[in-house]
């Protein structure tokens, strides 16, 4: 996946820049509050239909305007496309792909996958499970698109089951759903587990680089405890009375989590310093990128927001070294305040474009 051109209209402080990108390395630099991250935000919206910085769509629209618009020329799986995205202050969204309306966000996700490493992501270990689950499912989806329909069917049955539990329906009515629910839950779990198995050796290698420690892994918690290996259907039977009291299904794929474990199964979130946690997340994101490159249907855009801000110069250099080894078809976007620390990276790339941003004005620097 590659974005060749992007025109942004009225997104945050960006009025109407029209940018033509390098297929490899793009550096966006300038002082604080210039609008650098807003360019990454626009790229992120192309693949996700939402910002990575806020869930409130209206915050992204430039003050004094009623909507923002993106128009991109991109190449996805070797085919050129034109993608238009418009979001109104009242929440209405119009998406057009090659002039045809698009109604599903999954179309965007398949077309233009985006991987991001930004300061917001460094809280991965201390945030709730839903946040880690999203990261996990993003990766699973991009390796195996079919997971979406399985997940959606599973979710629908869970909703029906929960409604019956709320209505205090008898066990016979509820258990009628259980076989199907168990089957779909197991399919989702197998795909999630397969993804974790792909991530782990790469994650361990990157942790060796950043933390000097390779005995690190992610472990999938499927969403239920089955210590006796009885299977989910038996658990549903055993948990029925409690589920009924609570009015929802306690054990489900929607409770799944990713555990980040160190040597001797120590929890990374409890043990690592804040700085080490950042390095661990960086390693995880790089491993996710590599899995996409090796097993995904296409490589995502890789966005690195504020690359210099959170890592010391040693680790920053290690990250830059790894970026310099990326495949030539990997498109990368980096924002930074100062160019000096990333000059060695720029020198190692053949195809680099640099954009200077100040007060929302973007200028390509030759
Ligand atoms: N809805 C909005 N309308 C107009 N301006 C906005 C809006 N939201 C944020 N801004 C402003 O847009 C500017 C750009 O912010 P952005 O986060 O993109 O800057 P940045 O260059 O990445 O800065 P930093 O280096 O400090 O992270 C900021 O001055 C911010 O106050």
From TrEMBL:
Segments forming a coiled coil: none
Pfam family, one: SMC_N
Ranges for domain RecF/RecN/SMC N-terminal: 3-356
InterPro entries: DNA-binding_RecF, DNA-binding_RecF_CS, P-loop_NTPase, RecF/RecN/SMC_N, RecF_2
Binding site for ATP: 30-37
Main location as per UniProt: cytoplasm
Subcellular locations according to the entry: Cytoplasm
Record key words, sorted: ATP-binding, Cytoplasm, DNA damage, DNA repair, DNA replication, DNA-binding, Nucleotide-binding, SOS response
Highest taxon of source: Bacteria
Keyword Phosphoprotein assigned: no
UniProt keyword DNA damage, yes or no: yes
Role summary: The RecF protein is involved in DNA metabolism; it is required for DNA replication and normal SOS inducibility. RecF binds preferentially to single-stranded, linear DNA. It also seems to bind ATP.
NCBIfam families: recf
Protein name from the UniProt record: DNA replication and repair protein RecF
Gene: recF
